[in-house]
Every structure is written in structure tokens, then in C-alpha cells.
Input
Amino acid sequence: MRATPQEQFQQLLQTLRAALRDGEQFTVGFSAEQSQFIRFNHAKVRQAGVVSQASAQLRLVDNGRQAEQQFTLCGDAELDQQRLHDALKQLRQTLPLLAVDPYLSLDDSAWQSHSLQQQALPDPAEVLALVEREAAELDLVGIYAAGPICRGFASSFGAFGWHEAVSFNFDWSLFHANGEAVKANYAGQSWDAAAFVERLRLAREQLAYLGLPGVLLKPGSYRAYLTPAAMDEIAGMLCWGGFSAQALATGNSALQRLYSGDAQLSPLVSISEQVSGSLSPAFSDEGSQRQDLQLIAEGRGLQRLVSARSAAEFKLAANGADSYESPCALSLAPGELATADILQRLGTGLYISNLWYLNYSDLPAARMTGLTRFATFWVENGEIQGPVSTMRFDDTLYNLLGQQLEALTAERELILSTSTYGQRQTGSSHLPGALVKAMTLTL
Output
């Protein structure tokens, strides 16, 4: 019988401990997935398959020096053990060539963490039948990915963590005959056919609006509503070092002024790293237990993400952040705006479904620039008038989520990472939509 991912990891760990020499320390990370992928075009299956893979990330430490190597596991115990020994041999040859790492910091506690989130997913045939029934006449293009993701960690100090979670992510677009498109997503850990049908209904409704005559806007400031998907793009930019202790200590964070107390956001804005209950493991790639953190409280910078290395370099207390110090489960607290009231509260302005190609135009000022994408509509007196062509915005976070923020929606959307680069990811965000009094469009 083929070993389970956890048994595979335990076998690897047993071999590693037996091969360790005096004076050596190790950490080892484990990643695995069993993923069903289905690609759609014109609402029909164009490609389907299963990806089963596993890999290990070994770090060897000796005399203040450290080196890492990643290797793929195949499930054959003998061959996997040989790959482990080969990695050890190469790391032992590399270590003497390296300088002593002044910021090497290892968690020497024997912590234990075990999490199994094994909700049942629908049979792929059920998903296909639902798509066929609800979207047969639509030009639906997208990818459905589902299955268990496993993460493990162990150290020579006795720490051991195991995380296994089942999830699905259906990312699709509906194309109009005129070439315009509506982008939609349904993701989570518990499949609800009725919820998917509702998402599809809303996307179909927006698709009809794309057939209306286009509205041409001049550059300027406009009242706007940003959906959770659009907010996810802004949140993603903030994750690029915004909350990082290392970036804040070196002046490379977009939230420098917020954390120094020179600026603040709207009191409506409270952002946390909500690891508990999320798809992400409760331990970092560096071997520390992750914590739920209040990053921003009522518009003011509070905690930051501190990795073990940053803790050693800047004399801070580590709080379980990964080496890249980016949120893995970002959560923006909800507001009081009912979803049913969005268009009426917007009145006249922009309904922005998606943003893309974001970047910083002025990092210290937290000024972002990017483009509207897919279904962006002009609304007058609470009614959609027609689609707006792609436009560029350029505005600061202190405007969008600061003095210009009017309301956040009471309902939030769980957005799971759609990245499959190398492997499916466990990152997520839980976000409301945002109504802003003014958003600056430059062209």
C-alpha cells in the first residue's frame, strides 16, 4: 500500500535523524498535494488531470553556518532516502565554504502542531454536471482546482508540525460576443452548489450590462465602489513588504508612515493576520508557531510580521512570520454596508469589479497605480448605465482607505490564492467591498 503524505514525511524524518552527525542541526519542510485540475472553454471540458507531487526543503546547520536544498520526493521509500542522503552530502560539502551567519536564529523548542481540515469535496462529475446545466450556452473560460494540500515541518530540536487541508478554487470568466468579459471566482473548503449558482447568476447579470453602449470618462476623481476582488489586488500590494519588520526597519515599506505614527487610515480599517481556521499551516517555513496578529487597529499601525531572522537582526520579538514576512491569511474587518444597498449608496460613480497590473508609483507615500479590468461600470442614480473602458488609477492608500473611505460591506468574500506556480498555494484573504468618496483616474 502506498504511504500517505504524513507517513512519507515521517519515514523521511526517521532517516534524517539517523544520518545526523554530532554538532549538526536540521530543519525540514514538507509540501505535498493531490490536485484535480479541470480546464474549461465555452463551458466545456478541454483538459483534465490529476497532479500528485511532494517535495522536501532541508536546512543543515553546523558551527553557525546554514545551507538549504530542496528535492522532489517520488513515494518510493528507498529512492527518497537516497535523495535525502545526496542532499545531506551536498550540504555538508557546501557548509565549510560559507561564512558564519550573524543572524542565524533557530527555534529550539519542541513544539507540536497537528491540523486536519478534511471536508468532503464534490465528485468532479457533480461539478461538471452543474456547469453544463447552468452555463451551457455561455462562453465560460476557467480552471477548477481541488484536493488536499499538505504541509509539514520538523527540527532536530523535536518540533513537529503537520497541516492537511482540503480546498477548491474555481476561477472563471464569462466572455461577451463583443470581446469584453466578466471575471468571477468561487473558492473555499466546503462546496455549496447553491452558492456557486448564485455567483454564476451575478456574473451572467454583469455580462448583460457589457452589451450596453460604452461610457467614456475623462481623467478626474470619481466616487467608486471596489468589490472584494478589486480590494484583493490592493491588499496584495500591501503584502509586498507593507507589514514586514525587515522592510519597516530599512525604510522599504509602503506603510512606513502608518507604523511611525505620521499617518493613519480610516477608523473603519482593522486588518489582522488570521491564521487560525485558515487554509495556511499554524507554523512558518522557519520553524516557528504562527500567531494571529492585529496588524492595523482602527486605522493605526499596530503589530508587524517578525521572522526569526529579523528578530535577531533588529532585536525584536519573533511572532511566527515566514522568512518573507508576508501575511498568509489577511483579514479586513467588515463594515455595515449591506450588499443589496451598494448601488443605491454609490449613487453616481464607478462600480469596479477588478483591478490589475498594480504597482507603486510612490512607495513612501503608499501611492498605487494600476488599471481597471473586466466589468467596470458607470452608475447613475443607483442604476448601471454601461461599461467603462479600461482606465488607469493613481491614488494613495491614505486616500482610498483613509479620508475618502465611506463604508465597508458587512459581507466579506473568502479569496484563496489561485497561484499554481510550482504547486497550489495556501494563502488567502477575507475581504469586504469598499465604498470611497473619490478615486483618482489619470487616463
Summary: The mean pLDDT is 95.
